[in-house]
Description:
Layout: H1 2-19, H2 22-42, H3 51-65, H4 67-77, H5 79-84, H6 90-119, H7 127-151, H8 155-172, H9 186-190, H10 194-207, H11 215-244
Helix pairs in contact: 1-6, 2-3, 2-6, 3-6, 3-7, 3-10, 4-7, 4-8, 6-7, 7-8, 7-10, 7-11, 10-11
Amino acid sequence: xxxxxxxxxxxxKDLSAYYLKPPLISWGLMLPIAFALAFYFRHPSGIxxxxxxxxxxxxxxxxxxxxxxxxxFEKRIGAMERLLLAPLNFRTILLGxxxxxxLFGLMVAVLISLILIPLMGLHIKHFWAFVSIYILxxxxxxxxxxxxxxxxxxxxxAMTMSNFFRFPMIFLCGVFFPVSExxxxxxxxxxxxPLTYSVDGLKHSVLGDNATIPLYLDxxxxxxxxxxxxxxxxxxxxxxxxxxx
Length: 245
């Protein structure tokens, strides 16, 4: 419980210092709106089918926006040293960073959902499934950003690496067209990426039968991604900090 309390204050500090700023909020809001408009002008009749994908993209970009650079940035300005001297263990620091990024991503994605779902005449058919996929996706994407942040030494490297992972997901994870209709071997790559299961789970919740993967499998695989990414991030974080001390 004390560890969660410490993680909460780290997250609160990050939200105030980094996330709740106009440029980051506008980036999180404008990107999905731009994608929605681009698809609408191209194929107006199919816009309802891509709403879960746009929500998934919102979660991905919002949760990784600062998470991918926050640890690298704090090491650069000396803020990470102050956290380590607090004293806080590595796991608590990563937990706090993940929580802050996830809360920001969820806030932006909820706002986009409140706009898109009613606007497109849709409704949430499976509320608890929707909430579960939302939270698991937010945590998973935040940890993906954290993994990038602990794995590089410079902020510009983190930004480049995050885009290296994020932008292929736009086209490989069933956001705008089903994974099952992609030519081989693209579906194989799709099933190795967490956004695929996030979008599919959101399709279950909003569109009902339009999803291709069983909902329980979407949840199970996202949980697997979440724990794997946290464990790998923790391992690399410890190794990097000990090398730099």
